[in-house]
């Protein structure tokens, strides 16, 4: 693998951590496959669609017409069951891009009891609280997915 991509020290960012009672293998599948994402990402939207081309340089797109938004990007680095580095572009209701490309790093670390999920996302300073709230909501659903 090439040198790991890191977020520049001076970049505006938000970070959030969650603990999932599951193996990194199980969590990786939920982050990297359309069927896995459909189980927890936006379950509140019946029309949510997930497209994933899981390879470095491959694209992903998650969208919902009911919610009126989506996100798409490219996978920049993949370290299976450990780390995903991807770009992040918001889509509006008409699927037009909503802003500048952001960077997301998702790190998975297996512990004795499950997997620690750490997400870092760059973004404009005035959007960081909303990004953090969105990730908190999303990762809470991931944690609850394994509570059954």
UniProtKB/TrEMBL annotation:
The lineage of its organism: Bacteria, Bacillati, Actinomycetota, Actinomycetes, Micrococcales. Residues 22-146 form the Activator of Hsp90 ATPase homologue 1/2-like C-terminal domain. InterPro entries: ASHA1/2-like_C (IPR013538), START-like_dom_sf (IPR023393). It comes from the Bacteria. This is Uncharacterized conserved protein YndB, AHSA1/START domain. Belongs to the AHA1 family.
